[in-house]
């Protein structure tokens, strides 16, 4: 299986670190890479409130969309209130997992409407801390037209009910051991200076492997394979053993 690389950027919001986000954007534009960008509709997380709120954030987000970046709804307020990992237990904390369906529908509906009001069209959803549950999926299906999820451990995209799931496996650039669709997830707000040079070098030396989310033919995505089910089970079992 051929290796395909995708880039995901987390925690875009009016209070983001504008300088660091601009550095990332400049590198991606230089190599014509179109990432997925997760936008927090109503940020209340002090850890992601870096700069004063940017009054031009909506214009910036609209420019991302115009350039072909994939827009994702990244939770609602980015505040984790439960200690539940849900169906993708990367962490034992969540903004969504463990909440009632009604509570999740309210959060997701408000968040989606906020992005729509900005003029954005989110095609994907991913939750803060990567954690969500079945109620999250039900809420998305009932109150939004979003049918794409970025998260979980697998080697290739798969169908889960009405949703197409694009796995997100890596928190930094490194050569994967096998073929597949590999999403590298970055948090520009917290990247140190030397990380930007590493970021650009990896892209420059592996440019032919990078694709956009829009390059994935969703009509050809099937059910989660036995190999991917096993991979996911082993990954979370090992993670649980390590505590």
From TrEMBL:
<protein>
    <submittedName>
        <fullName>DUF2334 domain-containing protein</fullName>
    </submittedName>
</protein>
<dbReference type="GO" id="GO:0005975">
    <property type="term" value="P:carbohydrate metabolic process"/>
</dbReference>
<dbReference type="InterPro" id="IPR011330">
    <property type="entry name" value="Glyco_hydro/deAcase_b/a-brl"/>
</dbReference>
<dbReference type="Pfam" id="PF10096">
    <property type="entry name" value="DUF2334"/>
</dbReference>
<dbReference type="InterPro" id="IPR018763">
    <property type="entry name" value="DUF2334"/>
</dbReference>
